[in-house]
Amino acid sequence: MTGRRRWIVTGASSGIGRAIARDAPEEGDAVVIVARRRPALESLRDEMVRRDLEVAVVDGDIREQETIERAAEAAEVFGGLDCLVNSAGGGFPSPIEEVSANAWRAIFRLNTEAVFLLSNRVFPLLCDAAAGCIVNIGSAAGWAIDPNVAPYAASKAAMHHLTRHQAVEWARYGIRANVIAPGPTAVDGNRWSTDEGREQVRSMAALGVPAEARDVVALMRFLVSDDARMITGQVLNVDGGFVGWPLTPHG
Q1: Disulfide check for 60: which of 67, 72, 134, 171 has CB 3.0–4.6 Å away?
Q2: Catalytic positions
Q3: Which CATH architecture group holds 6-237?
Q4: In the prediction, which pLDDT does 186 show?
């Protein structure tokens, strides 16, 4: 589509979500940014306004229906919704046998259930768009077996498959749905940004270097564009060859 786009981006306070919200929209677009940390969202808003973007801040836990409602209502104030980006997510390392039932449920609520609930809430807005588009931020962990992240990996794999269902069931409404699945990505000073982390990636991925947020942003820009009009139901890795790399020494 051309012209002004209206977005919702969750998980926008840091990392990949922040980079998407700041850099993927074009001048004149309207963006609802959602995350728990209001000061981080306000600083992001200031950066975005300097790019001539309209911005609405929604601070809250995207797992809660009240936050979902406020995000949808903010999009309605902008006149509708063209692009939904579900980027909020998280997890923690632990052997499977040490994961509590509450921890398992919490990770699935964030990484899978929140995607389902927000997508369904804004479904009518996407139907009204000229070309509604959902991009869910998955993970290479949803494909690969990386020990000690079972709840995170399983929840992302479930989200990948949920996205395929969205693509098939909502195609008749003109809605496309895809997943961007990053592998090790150096962002916000995380472990992949350190010398130790970068060295580890040398033996974990074919290209031997971690991705950066800009690599995800570049794919995001393509997926929401008219050039991607025939792409839906896909899980697109941005992982430097992490998935499928032979004899990977995970652990």
Answers
A1: 67
A2: 152
A3: 3-Layer(aba) Sandwich (3.40)
A4: 87
